[in-house]
Write a structure and sequence with these properties.
Layout (H helix, E strand, L loop, with lengths): L1 H10 L6 H15 L7 H9 L3 H25 L6 H17 L6 H11 L4 H29 L11 E3 L2 E3 L1 H25 L1 H11 L9 H17 L5 H29 L4 H18 L10 H10 L8 H33 L3
Length: 352
């Protein structure tokens, strides 16, 4: 156990923030010198004349989002976490998602953090898997709803979208990403609520051939984890699931509304524009999930510009707003992680 703890703590090393920060800085510099005719005086003037109401609203929805995250994890644990513990869990989870290498995975980090906060391993695992299932289910359902009910073109006018070295038409990239999320979510729901042993059997059969045989041990462990998680959530009533669902919708709506507030602070957009921006973010987040960089560093800044550039009249202002967006929704959590992690470690490992 100590060896596993050591590996997890190493993956949370605050120095790893340099990788996504450098990627973001490089991308921003490249965008600044991309040949666009940027009028820096107009950009600065627009920033100075920002609508203070929308700026405050942007901070407010960001705060509500974090409170929503804290409420949801506290609800899922049936108040097994205090509000302070929920604060540490959420901020360290966000930090881990930003800097953890994919071979370690954010799930392992979150389970470790919850376990150190006094939640048993089985329950920690079930809560983390539940959280991922709720988030992914929201992505799939929300994307279907906006495609069906929003009577405007929510895809930006782009010929192609590049990610992970591949160049796709944007709608193709979206279709691939949302399909993968849907399949993954179905498998999680099947394993959690329907037939966990069947889920393990599928993983074992999938890794039975010569090519995938080296992943057999991982598949067996994942199957065992799913069985444990499924056992832990049996018997919950409909109120439990309803509150978890509502809090998930609240969390992601707050995340999306921050972009609406930021764009409204610097441009004159109407109600229809707000609806398009909100809907377009659902598409953007799904497409960004196939980004290979930690926390979509670099890719997010470029994607924001491609999706929302048409709402800005001043050349270069969209890049400034994209930087603000990433500072408050991503890089701030890198800084928060650096500040919170040492305090959490002292609180957790030295309290005995």
């Amino acid at each position: 156990m100590e060896l596993k703890n050591s590996k997890v703590l190493k993956s949370l090393n605050p120095r790893k923030i340099l990788i996504p920060v450098l990627i973001g800085v490089i991308v921003v510099v490249l965008l600044l010198f991309s040949g666009d005719d940027i009028n820096y005086e107009q950009v600065i003037s627009s920033l100075k004349n920002a609508n203070i109401f929308w700026v405050i609203a942007a901070f407010a929805v960001l705060l509500f989002r974090d409170l929503g995250y804290m409420y949801r994890i506290r609800h899922l644990t049936k108040k097994g976490l205090s509000w302070l513990s929920s604060f540490f869990v959420i901020f360290l989870w966000e930090f881990a998602s930003a800097v953890t290498p994919s071979v370690v995975g954010g799930t392992a980090i979150a389970v470790f953090i919850l376990n150190k906060e006094g939640i048993s391993f089985g329950k920690s695992l079930s809560y983390v898997i539940l959280t991922a299932a709720f988030d992914n289910l929201f992505f799939v359902i929300a994307s279907v709803l906006v495609l069906i009910f929003v009577p405007f073109e929510i895809f930006p006018n782009l010929e192609n979208f590049t990610s992970a070295g591949f160049n796709f038409p944007l709608k193709t990239a979206f279709a691939i990403s949302v399909s993968l999320i849907a399949v993954y979510t179905f498998l999680m729901i099947y394993g959690l609520f329907i037939k966990p042993k069947g889920f393990k059997w599928l993983l074992v059969k999938f890794t039975s051939n010569r090519i995938l045989k080296r992943f057999r041990n991982t598949a067996l462990q994942s199957g065992d984890d799913m069985i444990i998680a499924s056992e832990m959530i049996k018997g919950e009533n409909w109120k439990y699931w309803l509150k978890a669902s509502i809090s998930t919708v609240f969390i992601w709506s707050a995340r999306y509304l921050m972009v609406n507030c930021l764009i409204a602070a610097f441009t004159g957009i109407n109600l229809i524009d707000h609806l398009i921006i909100f809907s377009r973010q659902i598409i953007m987040w799904i497409v960004m999930l196939i980004s290979p960089t930690p926390g979509s560093a670099g890719a997010a800044e470029v994607t924001f510009r491609l999706f929302f550039g048409e709402f800005f009249q001043v050349a270069g202002l969209v890049l400034a707003v994209a930087i603000f967006w990433r500072i408050f929704t991503y890089y701030a959590y890198l800084l928060a992680g650096v500040l919170v992690l040492p305090r959490w470690m002292r609180r957790t490992f030295l309290k005995k």
